[in-house]
Amino acid sequence: MRKIILSILIPLFLLFTFAMIIGFSKNYYYYEFDRIKPEYELNIDSKFIRYAAQVIPEYLTGRRDNLEVPGFKNFFNEREIMHMEDVRNIFKYLIIITISIGVIIFLLMKKKDLPNIFLYSFIPILLFLILYLFVPFDKLFINFHLILFRNDLWLLNPETDRLIVLLPEDFFIRSFQKILIFTSLTLIYLFSIFNVLEVNFEKRDK
Asked: Whole domain around residue 31: which residue ranges?
């Protein structure tokens, strides 16, 4: 039972951790905004897009208490600001949940079981991958918002809301892909390391 719990908690811990790393990284927003180039659709100077790429993660991490973009009054409207406040609250809960999962993993972990546990941890990742491959992402995206948000503020209009142009569906698709990839690579690395260590320990004991 302990192995089953750990094989579920470990990938969740990694998924949540990488989700926060991406969500809180201004360099990631810089990279994605340079790729998406929302300044063309919004018809504004690209420097304000760069400012927004810094403002959003700083707001989500609590390093700033507003979404004001320097030099651009009312860059985000009231609806967008209220939605981002909801998003920031979700990240606050995510931090608490991730730390709690980390503590549980630490308490349940035993060195001799690690290779098998990391191997079994791929099962939840495979389920996520299957879900991603066989269920349209827009359906997953909508259900995700319906579960997490108690209002319809996330239903933005590209004609009136800049946030949805900055963060289109493609942004979230790529982010989800990266989170799955980083989690999988981390599990592969951990499995390889601890498998080698276990083999060495067994040789030493003989």
From this structure: 2-205
